[in-house]
Amino acid sequence: MANAALQLEPLHKLTHNNGVYGASFSLDGKQLATASLDNTAKLWNVAHGQHTGTLKGHGDGVAFAGYLKDGRLVTASLDKSLKVWSPEGELISTMAGHQEYLSCAAVARTGTLVVSGGFDKAVRLWDAQSATSIAVFTGHEAPVQTVAFSPDATRIASGGNDFTIRLWDVEARQLRKAFSGHAETVEAVAFAPSGGLLASGGGDGRWRLWSDEGKPLADVDSKSPRVKSLAFSTDGRWLATGGSDGLVRIWNVAERRELFSAPAHKNTIYGVAFSPTGQHLATAGFDRTIRLWKITRS
Amino acid sequence: MITLSGGRFRLCDGLSRRTLLQLGGLAMGGLTLPDLLRAEGAAGRKGSQKSVIMVFLSGGPPHQDMVDLKPDAPAEIRGEFQPIETNVPGIQICEHLPLLAQRTDRLSIIRSLVGSEGRHAAFQCLTGQTFAPQPPGGWPAFGSVVSKLQGPVELSVPPFVSLSPKMKGRGWADPGQPGFCGQAHAPFAPNADSANLQLRDISRSQLNARQALLQQLDRLKRDVENSGALEGADAYYQQAFGILTSSKLADALDLEQEDPRVRDRYGRGSPEPAGYGDAGPIMNDYFLAARRLVEAGVRVVSLAYGRWDWHGRPHGTNFENARDHLPIFDQGLSALLDDLRDRGLSKDVTVLVWGEFGRTPRINKNGGRDHWPQVACAMLAGGGMPSGQVIGSTNKFAEHPKDRPVHFQEVFATLYHNLGIDVESVTVNDLTGRPQYLVDHSRFHALPELL
């Protein structure tokens, strides 16, 4: 642990019955949705750590659970489908199209767009409102492990087992640029909230910064053998990383410097997420737990 | 299945934990308690009580990541784990099994198990035989053979209990078929959910109040008679409830009666299916229940534990899954070994732990290891056997035996030996009346290292 300016204070320890693949806050930061290999997504009250609901219906592990702007939820599963749920947890619709395992997904901060990636090497764009497929982006030469929307939802970044990162133009529905740098699988990508920056984490244990056009800006040793998850803070100043060593680390993005680290999980950290309010961080691990942290600054 | 209800923990379906203390669910073709009683009627108490606890690690545990690490192999073979010293000089096992490392003096580790038929199923680990061909009636599970040959220790306690729960992976859920031993020797399978009678309004405490029970049974009987479900029931039906009203079996299965500190030592575990709903739970309570059952007089207890079929992403890498399973398995098995020792059962109770095959030496592109029938591992303890030893070895990449290959049937021959059954001479007739040896005795014998 280091740095008096930033601390993570353990708030709640939440559990699933199998590895947890991701965590997402609601837009007001009061709710948390978690996705697990136990075939469910769970909903939690952030302040009290209370379990408020379980989304059941997928036939395989759930790789992603997240909130749309209107409060509805989207889940994406290894069973090759995505599901849209009401805020109360009622199933609204199911979208399917991937030909092999669906491994990752993301929702746009605005609107109802959803993107998913899979072992079929495809990146698929969906409209959760109409529950329809909008586009299929092909070009990856191996399974896709991570996808992310740019803040304005005009671009999608994807990465995977072909070691490349690809930028897709949502409007034109075509590849904008492909680039590489990681020496292993690209495990995680995230756009900075204000745009302009893209971060990636790799199986090579490094995290990288790129311009949103793919220009390399930084290459940093994460200190973990494998980076599996990363997320920008709401103000874009910090980057949280999680990896195979079970430690959560917070980095100063501008200085590429580690600010804080703490043992968080007994297994790989598959997901990290800052709350929109900037008050909390969630980490999701293969150790079946989600840790909710309160962010304090001196 | 008959379910005793009442209790403390609420589950998602509104039932309590005690509600799920299920008695009477006999697996395999709808075997009923009266079938068991018929077998009991022909048997009676026999001999001293030697018993076997068989732990099936569903899916094929990675031998090279548990008890046969190869730290000098290339990274794509040796994997992520380091070996640690055990309390037996010269024997090393995985760093994620530290409690068993402290108890290796009570273990025999087989590193060269061969003869796997490569099927994703419990069948070979339960019978010692390959699935095909089978003699008329089918190969019986080890516990069914023991039931046939030795009968129950007590009339109210079945000789063979399978704790394997219902799973989507039916080959893993197999509680053990009675085969040519006959349905009377099918396992009592309290978790199998294979029968259809439920007494959901009877609590454990009510069970002791026979009057209340009988009233409940009468009501149930009227209900099912009205539905036609009891047509053909015979006098053994009444006796069947003798087992239920006998406290011994119920007590053995009621872990609420156990000191909570003991349950904590075992690690409790989760009743939810491991993996993705297709495998058994990582339920350390099963280890404790097994100990309680053999103490109550059960001769053979089998159980399926966890999901060990780790092909890799997107279901987590082999090593992520191992980090998940190994520590709690380490705790549960260690607690069982300690408990058996502390209760003076180590000489009488044989514990066997294994899976249907090993895993590929080379880590695949998804961080997993695939099926590898060429070699596997097993652990044995108790039974009065010599321990603190490794039997057999593999080559430098754990691909195949280097010396002393041990066949599945040699392990079964050893189990039979520990129960006083001579595989050289004992036979059981199949359905055509042809005598069948319990193992291929012309080739396989009890392991001399364990005698």
Report what the structure shows:
The complex is a heterodimer of chains A (298) and B (451). Chain A has 298 residues and is mostly beta strands. Chain A has strands spanning 6-15, 20-25, 31-36, 40-45, 50-56, 62-67, 73-77, 81-85, 91-96, 102-107, 113-118, 123-127, 132-137, 144-149, 155-160, 164-169, 174-180, 186-191, 197-202, 206-211, 216-221, 227-232, 238-243, 247-252, 257-263, 269-274, 280-285, 289-297. Chain A is built from no helices and 28 strands. In chain A, the strands form 7 sheets. Chain A has a 4-stranded antiparallel sheet, with no helix packed on it. In chain A, strands 2-3-4-5 form a 4-stranded antiparallel sheet, with no helix packed on it. Chain A has a 4-stranded antiparallel sheet with strand order 6-7-8-9, with no helix packed on it. The model of chain A has no long low-confidence stretch (mean pLDDT 96). By secondary structure, chain B is of the alpha/beta class. Chain B contains 14 helices and 18 strands. Chain B has helices at 33-41, 75-78, 98-101, 123-127, 142-150, 170-173, 204-207, 210-227, 236-245, 247-253, 260-266, 285-296, 318-342, 408-418; strands spanning 2-4, 21-23, 51-56, 83-85, 92-94, 107-114, 160-162, 300-304, 349-354, 358-359, 371-372, 376-382, 389-391, 393-394, 401-403, 406-407, 427-429, 435-437. In chain B, the strands form 6 sheets. In chain B, strands 3, 6, 7, 8, 9, 12, 13 and 16 form an 8-stranded mixed sheet that branches. In chain B, helix 1 (33-41) packs across helix 9 (236-245), helix 10 (247-253) packs antiparallel against helix 12 and helix 12 (285-296) packs parallel to helix 13. The chains are: A mainly beta (298), B alpha/beta (451). Chains A and B meet through loops of A and helix 13 of B.
